[in-house]
Amino acid sequence: MVIEFGGLVVDAMDMEQRMTLSNMAVEAGTTSGICLPDKTTVDYLWAFIKDEKFFIPAKSTDIKG
What we know:
By secondary structure, the chain is an alpha+beta fold. It has one domain (2-52). It is built from 3 helices and 2 strands, in the order βααβα. The chain has a two-stranded parallel sheet with strand order 1-2. The radius of gyration is 16 Å and the shape is elongated. 5% of the residues are buried.
């Protein structure tokens, strides 16, 4: 079982608070807890991945529909 956290209170939390909340989900008997990703999540992760080449830019002509 997984607990998903969201809402105004979670939106106001920084990443350290969200990680603490997610880790405490185990105390409630679940296997994990997650918070919905948003700008706070992206800003936190960007520091770790900004120099990585993990994507290939695509042109609109590359997409066949």
